[in-house]
Design brief:
Order of helices and strands: EHHEEHEHEEEE
Helix content: 25-40%
Radius of gyration: 19 Å
Structural class: alpha/beta
Shape: elongated
Oligomer: single chain
Distance between the termini: 37 Å
CATH topology of the largest domain: GMP Synthetase, Chain A, domain 3
Number of helices: 4
Number of domains: 2
CATH class of the largest domain: Alpha Beta
CATH architecture of the largest domain: 2-Layer Sandwich
Number of strands: 8
């Protein structure tokens, strides 16, 4: 493998991802590599890809440190290229997210510490990230950290009205205070029952 990621470069993946959901990161081994490597070789490559996905996926989001990028659905897939190069593909929560370069740097740092120096970390912007990709465990951790998780959407639509439960007391009697909370992806709400303010991860 000859290519290394340049941290902070906004390196885009050479090929679009085929993964349709970021909720569970996938892996891809081209048929031509599988044909040459044989069963034993493919199994070894698959094990390496799984290890890389586990290391990269365990990196925490800098704005939501209680949740990993795998749980947020930011880690899209790990792909073995035609020349044995490995790409870790990430999709930011939105294209202008200020945390994306930090995430890329942390993924590269974690992989290097685990012995994977020659892995390319790149971005995939299509299809765009959606809050539906947040895993059940990610949603549980958000609520445990005092952040109301986003409602799941159906067929890419968002309901006109939706219930946002207080992560502190569970009440559905909450009100919007500000469309922007501690970060752009969250809104600030207040619970009318316990009077506690809380962030709500806005559905996208």
């Amino acid at each position: 493998m000859n290519e290394r990621v340049v941290v902070g470069s906004g390196h885009m993946c050479a090929q679009p991802t085929t993964t349709t959901s970021g909720a569970a990161a996938g892996s891809s081994i081209p048929d031509e590599i599988a044909g040459v490597a044989g069963v034993a070789g493919v199994a070894e490559v698959a094990e390496i890809v799984a290890r890389i996905a586990a290391v990269a996926g365990a990196v925490e989001d800098p704005e939501l440190p209680q949740v990993t990028i795998a749980e947020l659905g930011i880690l899209r897939e790990v792909v073995v290229g035609e020349h044995d190069g490995i790409e870790v593909r990430l999709t930011p929560t939105y294209s202008g997210c200020p945390a994306v370069e930090v995430i890329e740097a942390e993924v590269h740092r974690a992989l290097a510490a685990a012995g994977f120096d020659d892995v390319t970390v790149c971005r995939v912007l299509s299809p765009p990230w959606t809050t539906d990709w947040i895993t059940a465990e990610g949603r549980r951790k958000l609520a445990a950290g005092g952040i109301a998780p986003p409602a799941r959407q159906r067929a890419g639509t968002q309901p006109v009205t939706f219930v946002v439960r207080c992560p502190h007391c569970g009440s559905a009697d909450t009100e919007l205070v500000s469309r922007f909370g501690s970060t752009a992806c969250k809104a600030l709400r207040r619970c009318r029952s316990c009077a506690e303010p809380f962030d709500h991860f806005k559905p996208l």
